Predict the structure.
Amino acid sequence: MELTREEEDMLAGKQGATKRVAMEGLVQLGRAYGAPRMVEIGYAHVHAGMALYLEDVEMIEELAGQNARFSVPTSVNIANADTVNWQQTGAPEKLARLQQRAGTAHHKLGSSCTFTCTPYWAGHWPTWNMHMTSIESGVTVFCNSVIGAKSNRDGYFSVYAGLTGRYPLFGYHLDENRRGNMLFAVDAQLSGTTDFSCLGFHIGKVVGDGVPVVTGFKRRPSLDELDALGVGMATSGGVALFIIPQITPPYASIEQAFAFGPVPDPLPVRRADIDAVYDYFCTSPTGDVDIIHVGCPHASFEEMREYAEMLRGKKVSANVEFWITTSRAVRNMSQEQGLLKVLEAAGAKVIADTCPISCHFARTVSPDPALGVVPPTIGTVLVDSAKQAKYVRDMIRCDTLLAPTAQVIEAAIAGRYAGPTAQGRTP
């Protein structure tokens, strides 16, 4: 790889041991993918240091102990516990305290401790054409497809990129890879984020890790709906970029989305395809639920306002737990606007930093034995997100029910879901 003088200095350790290790990792990554050089990044969304694994937190603490600092504005991904209100989730205290240690380390590193999968709702909004890095697939697809920034789906390399301000030039950092390879024509009425998450889940299964171009919307989707669409694609497939002409920068037409080459025949997406996703995730034979959850990906302020209006003057049933997950920033905004008071008066648990699939509920992880984490027994979780339904099934290993947000909140009030169930269907 061709390196600048500054990059060579980092690689040689002239800017410290931490940047040397980080640059070594990025060079190896670049060589593996045939990158000719590095690019300067303007933003990084990095690993939190997950408290279910002691060594994971210690890695972040080691960086902080070396007086390392992130070189670009840096937000932090979702964690294993709400480090402020961990008691309301039933998290073990040792788990919460360990997660707080990761937060302390990130403060030293210069991170903005967002601990969220939607840092854009917390003010981190990279500009069009900005090279960036992200450990979170939902952030990648949103920033590529809605904002027009340039990012791959990264793992721990996002930390290395944040420390150096560099990333290898490959993948979606190259304009020639930012073009469609399949065309989808939506022939269905869509309403709300759940429909869009199901649409995304359907498209992701078909396109895999390709770049879908999506047309046919009867109206311009909202930012929350675009967010749900992208995370649905990233969950069922490996999608990092979708293109909606006149929404995704800079694509003004279908022809431009395919780089003015051959435009493939459109694949129709009908209501039956979307309803099939709802059906796929309704695996419980009854409407009895243990936990009801909205806020996947972490809720925006607009969604918090929507939840508050639905719950104003009402009460969540004592038979269920109702979780709303969001970022610290949005929770603070909600408090300032009086929304948090409405939600908590109704009996909702407004949780930041984590969510059901990232907390102590997960059964597919092996937590550090010293933490004493024993996942609770959960029979059924009702959600309004195809992404959450997929990972609840995979990680908590319980039944799921999937429904639009309004029906989910109605079920929280009633203490039982009254909509379609599995009716004997085996997932």
